[in-house]
Specification:
- The structure holds three protein chains of three kinds.
- By secondary structure, chain B is of the alpha/beta class.
- Helices cover 45% and strands 20% of the residues of chain B.
- In chain B, helix 7 links the parallel strand 6 and strand 7.
- In chain B, helix 2 packs across helix 12, helix 3 packs parallel to helix 4 and helix 12 packs across helix 13.
- Chain B is globular.
- Chain C has twelve helices and four strands; from the N terminus they run ααααβββααααβαααα.
Chain lengths: 341, 385, 299
């Protein structure tokens, strides 16, 4: 890796971001805030999924199961004890009296997800291709079924409501930045190279000494951790968790965002998520005006199919943003550019 | 690639600006409708929206309210809590004075807090969990009666008719069905009845024979079957119950109030079925509503939610008239003070401090595919939420 | 009811359920074996067929014409699907086509909601006035009986087709070894398109019976059957027609077992158990009960 770290630029960007977050969080109406928070959550989901599917080549249809685990954990821990006593009668007494804030609840959810990911991953990551997709789909279904049936703990189909709204733009943006940073570092590290080696050709990678099962498990677990964090943030944003919130449509949406952005490009996932969020909001208005509902589904499905047929590497392929490319781009964009060789 | 990027940037900026600065004001009174027009709840909410649209047309044809036309702002919740939350915020931003919609408690729990926070009344047309107003806050009103009320009425009726034992089948994925059977069991046992056993299924299942065969194997057989189901599944369930030779009376709630019950089960099977609902289809009001609905949409109301949506909207309009202003808080207070509002689904009274209406329950029998009005009751004892 | 007759009735229930699952799975397995493509939109092809039948029947078409018309509609939709969604992706990884089929599902389901409305519709085309046969206490519905017979006949006819006809043999060849088939001059495109077409026709028939058993249809009806078919195909062995049928019956029996013999407060976990079973099979015998080990998956 050449080039020095552009510290100045990074600090500046963070500061600008911080100011934007401050203004939006304090002055914007709740609609804008909600959309912004959700967008950050989707960014976390897309980037985590990209680590697993884009960089390591494991197609998992079940990551949202970890989001559910994170959401329910946060719900159980942040719900008021009074309501816990009434609703969640299957919980042991000490859990019912607990009343946590977002950060510890998030972390506990994350740790729980990591433990489950280690267990589940150990068992199913040896499968390949279609089969692992099926197995992870099974995981998603199992999580949903447990949420629906373990009524003493999750209140079943009724869900857990009146969750405190701890999530705000500082948390979500912070979590998104941390996710991007960790995944970035992981991907640029030797681990990252091993991941792409596994993705390209499993057998060849192993023959040069890459310990595939360990790398796969690492990727799976890190992805599960951040997905779980996103789930906790979601729970304390929307205020109610129910089994059906974390199922196939969300899975498909994140996959679409990831593929369109480019599997193997963190920048792609971020840009694509921002783009889709804006598109989604614009369509919300549009659908209502023309009284034709369901356009967004059709449009997203079409975009996905077009990308997969005509530009399967997504918008960004495997490229990432970098100082050189950014300045090159600005130069071209501002029209002053002759292409530097 | 560069042109594409410029286009993208410009589009993003335009959309962003448009989104951020959407307007209030104008010469209309805006009422919001949030419904799940796509996704799993669509078959419940789409008729609800139709009911709203019918009421809107009638209100505007009669001159609107407070001298202005009413503008309906509709948002699709996609049967997804995150979408609902954003949609509710969007409606608030648009400057609506009240919101109506949704037929499921979990959906309302996702959408209504935004309205509560902004001080805008939310009148749900179809969610029936009696604890809902407490879970959301003092700006949440329910248009239909609570599940505890109709379940108690069903239990009392069954017991009166001589039933002492019951078998329960319920959909474990919907809070409506979960609550209905819970309250039924509570009231039935309170009267001295026994629940022999219960069994479950999942919304959308099409084969119930395993559970029904288990029922058949019970000895002694129960006096009644309490089947707690939504409108899309009940026809299939009744069909299979009768196909398996089980002739026991079937009892249920307003989920049965749909032409699908007879159409899917067939007139032979749709027999010896009893259900509680909001109003008798036979009454002049219900017939008139059905006619108007058919005229506007080309077919009869698909289920009870159409009439509920109609009434919820009209309730809001009536409250605006009584409040005399388009201030959301005054409107909310006017809704809370509603007494004697005559709707298609019954007469609405909100007891002081309560936001679940006091409404009577109608009991209907299905006899060889024909609906027969039995009685209109207020249950004597209602289980607590 | 004696315990013996309880068992017999549950057995009959399982057989009926298994037959409809098998019928749905046959089309899915056929398409997979020849095109190496898992078409999640198979369930929506069922839905298209069912709606086609309903529309034709309501418009006044006679019984048989409505059924044939609806099934053909499925076939045609299948051809469109193959041409525009899957053919451009020939040669791509299995994953890509799987994900694309999800996109097709979204398109078809929401398209159907826009065209037909989201509401459930009654489907009474196969309603008999006396719906069940009573065989000394055990009840089987006529529709289920027809389904069982139809499934077994289909299995026989397909087996003959695959062994005796030129087209059938070509399909088997393509399923076994794509490159070799080309080398011996098999027109790949024709075989693949035909297989997809036949698979879609099967979907239409499955849609008819699925709708008739339930007595209703709706735009989202295809989702549950295709997931069941998927599980059944994995259990029985993806790519083998006989495996598909066997998988369908195993799944049917497993579900009735869970729903009928577990205590009721556990029966809600039925779907979870089925998927745990699935994962176990994937770990222990990924090729399914009837699949052969020689079929290697590209990573």
């Amino acid at each position: 890796m050449t080039g020095k770290k552009p510290f100045g630029l990074i600090i500046l960007s963070l500061a600008v971001l911080g100011i934007i977050v401050f203004f939006v969080n304090t002055f914007a109406n709740s609609y804008i805030k909600r959309v912004a928070n959700l967008m950050m959550i989707y960014i976390i989901l897309a980037v985590s999924l990209n680590l697993l599917t884009g960089f390591t080549g494991i197609v998992s249809l079940g990551q949202i199961g970890f989001m559910s685990i994170g959401a329910y954990t946060s719900a159980i821990l942040t719900l008021s004890p009074r309501l816990k006593h009434r609703w969640l009668i299957g919980l042991p007494e000490w859990l019912q009296s607990v009343h946590m804030h977002l950060f510890p609840a998030m972390l506990i959810g994350g740790i729980l997800s990591v433990i489950i990911a280690l267990g589940v991953g150990y068992v199913i990551l040896r499968l390949r291709g279609v089969y692992i997709a099926v197995a992870t789909l099974g995981f998603l279904v199992i999580v949903k079924v447990m949420a629906e049936n373990w009524i003493g703990v999750t209140r079943g189909g009724r869900g857990i409501s009146t969750l405190p709204g701890y999530t705000n733009l500082w948390w979500t943006t912070g979590a998104a930045l941390i996710t991007i940073y960790v995944v970035w570092r992981l991907v640029k590290s030797p681990y990252g190279r091993k991941m792409t080696a596994i993705r390209e050709h499993d057998l060849a990678a192993q023959s040069v000494g890459v310990h595939a099962p360990k790398i796969r498990l690492l990727s799976f677990t890190v992805s599960a951790f951040f997905t779980s964090i996103a789930g906790s943030l979601w729970a304390n944003l929307i205020g109610v968790v129910s089994p059906g919130s974390f199922y196939l449509w969300l899975t498909l949406l994140i996959i679409i965002m990831m593929v369109v952005g480019g599997m193997g490009s963190i920048t792609g996932s971020v840009v694509s998520t921002i783009g889709f969020t804006i598109l989604l909001e614009w369509l919300r208005n549009f659908e209502s005006r023309v009284a034709v509902y369901g356009i967004h589904y059709i449009l997203f499905a079409l975009i996905f199919m077009l990308i997969i047929i005509f530009r399967p590497q997504g918008l960004f392929g495997t490229r990432e943003i970098s100082r050189e490319k950014l300045s090159e781009f600005m130069r071209r964009f501002l029209g002053r550019g002759k292409i530097r060789t | 690639m560069r042109k594409l990027f410029i286009l993208f940037l410009v589009a993003a900026m335009v959309l962003g600006v448009q989104l951020a600065f959407a307007g209030k004001g104008g010469n209309t009174i805006k009422i919001g409708a949030i419904e799940n027009l796509t996704g799993s709840q669509a078959s419940l909410d789409a008729p609800s929206l139709n009911g709203v649209k019918l009421a809107l047309k009638e209100a505007n044809d009669a001159g609107g309210v407070l001298g202005k036309k009413i503008e309906l702002v509709v948002r699709d919740g996609k049967s997804d809590p995150a979408t609902l939350a954003v949609a509710a915020d969007d409606l608030v931003r648009k400057g609506v004075v009240a919101i109506t919609g949704l037929s499921d408690t979990t959906m309302v729990l996702a959408a209504a807090p935004a309205a509560q926070k902004a001080g805008i009344a939310f009148v749900t047309s179809g969610a029936t969990a009696p604890s809902l107003p407490d879970e959301v806050g003092d700006y949440l009103f329910m248009e239909p009666f609570g599940d505890n009320v109709q379940a108690a009425a069903a239990a009392e009726y069954a017991y009166q008719q001589g039933a002492r034992t019951a078998w329960i089948l319920y959909d474990k994925a919907m809070d409506y069905t979960l609550l209905l059977q819970k309250y039924f069991a509570e009231r039935f046992k309170g009267l001295g009845g026994t629940i022999i056993s219960s069994d479950t299924y999942q919304t959308g299942d099409t084969d119930f024979r395993a559970q029904l065969t288990r029922l058949k194997a019970l000895s002694p057989q129960p006096d009644i079957l309490f089947i707690s189901s939504g409108p899309d599944d009940i026809g299939t369930i009744v069909k299979q119950v009768r196909e398996l030779g089980i002739n026991t009376p079937i009892v249920g709630g307003d989920g049965y109030d749909t032409p699908l019950l007879v159409e899917v089960a067939g007139p032979e099977a749709a027999d010896n079925v009893y259900f509680t609902t909001h109003i008798s289809f036979d009454s002049p009001k219900a017939k008139a509503f059905s006619e108007k609905y058919k005229k506007m949409f080309g077919h009869e109301p698909e289920n009870a939610f159409a009439a509920l949506g109609y009434d919820a909207f009209n309730l809001i309009v009536d409250a605006i008239k009584r409040a005399g202003t388009d201030d959301p808080k005054a409107i909310r207070n006017a809704i809370a003070a509603t007494k004697g509002f005559e709707g298609v689904t019954g007469t609405i009274n909100y007891p002081p401090g309560k936001r679940v209406p006091q409404k009577s329950v109608t009991i209907i029998q299905v006899k060889k595919g024909k609906l027969v009005f039995l009685n209109e009751v207020m249950p004597k004892v209602i289980p607590a939420p | 009811m004696s315990y013996a007759s309880y068992l017999i009735q549950q057995f009959v229930n399982a057989l009926s359920l298994g037959s409809i699952y098998a019928l749905v799975t046959i089309g899915l397995a056929m398409v997979f074996s020849v095109l190496r493509l898992i078409n999640f939109a198979h369930g929506d092809l069922m839905m298209v067929g069912a709606y086609g039948i309903l529309m034709l029947w309501k418009a006044g078409a006679p019984f048989w014409l409505a059924i044939v018309g609806g099934v053909v509609a499925s076939g045609i939709m299948g051809l469109i699907m193959e041409r525009f969604a899957y053919r451009p992706l020939r040669g791509a990884a299995d994953m890509t086509t799987l994900l694309t089929s999800f996109a097709v599902v979204v398109l078809l389901e929401n398209g159907a909601i826009l065209v037909f409305g989201p509401n459930t519709r009654p489907f009474s085309i196969l309603r008999f006035s006396v719906p069940t046969y009573n065989l000394s206490g055990t009840l089987i519905s006529k529709i289920d009986l027809v389904t069982v017979i139809l499934t077994l006949c289909t299995l026989l006819i397909l087996a003959l087709f695959i062994k005796r006809t030129k087209l059938g043999i070509s399909m088997r060849a393509v399923a076994d070894d794509l490159t070799a088939s080309r080398l011996v001059g098999i027109k790949l495109n024709r075989v693949m398109v035909t297989a997809f077409f036949i698979g879609s026709l099967f979907a239409g028939v499955a849609g008819l019976f699925w709708g008739a058993r339930a007595g209703k249809i709706d735009p989202l009806m295809g989702f549950i059957p295709v997931v069941k078919a998927f599980v059944a195909a994995v259990i029985g062995g993806f790519g083998s027609i006989a495996g598909a049928v066997l998988g369908g019956y195993v799944l049917g029996f497993a579900e009735v077992l869970f729903a009928g013999f577990l205590p009721p407060n556990y029966s809600g976990y039925r779907d979870a158990f089925v998927f745990v079973l699935l994962i176990l099979i994937l770990l222990v015998r990924p090729q399914g009960i009837l699949g052969s080990r020689t079929r290697e998956r590209r990573i």
